Design the sequence.
C-alpha cells in the first residue's frame, strides 16, 4: 500500500471513530436526561424479538447476496454468436 493511500485510510478511520464517539456522547446525554425510566418485561421481550428479527433479516439477505455472487447470477447475459 502506498504512503498516500495508507494516510487516507487512517484519516478515514479517525473520522469514523470521531463520529461514533460523538454519537455515543449524544446518546449518553439524552439517556441521562430522561431520568429514571424503566422498561417492562414486555418491552424487553419486544426489543429482543426486534433485534433477533433484524439480525435474521440482515444475515439472510447478505447470505443471498453472497450465494448469488458465487453462483454467477449477478453476471450479465453472455451471447455466443
Sequence:
Amino acid at each position: 500500500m502506498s504512503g498516500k493511500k495508507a494516510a487516507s485510510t487512517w484519516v478515514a478511520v479517525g473520522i469514523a471513530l470521531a463520529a461514533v464517539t460523538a454519537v455515543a456522547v449524544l446518546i449518553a446525554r439524552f439517556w441521562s436526561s430522561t431520568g429514571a425510566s424503566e422498561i417492562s418485561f414486555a418491552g424487553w421481550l419486544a426489543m429482543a424479538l426486534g433485534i433477533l428479527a433484524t439480525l435474521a433479516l440482515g444475515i439472510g439477505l447478505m447470505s443471498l447476496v453472497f450465494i448469488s455472487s458465487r453462483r454467477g447470477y449477478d453476471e450479465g447475459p453472455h451471447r455466443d454468436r
About this structure: Helices lie at 3-33, 41-71. Residues 38-81 form one domain. The two ends are 42 Å apart (CA to CA).
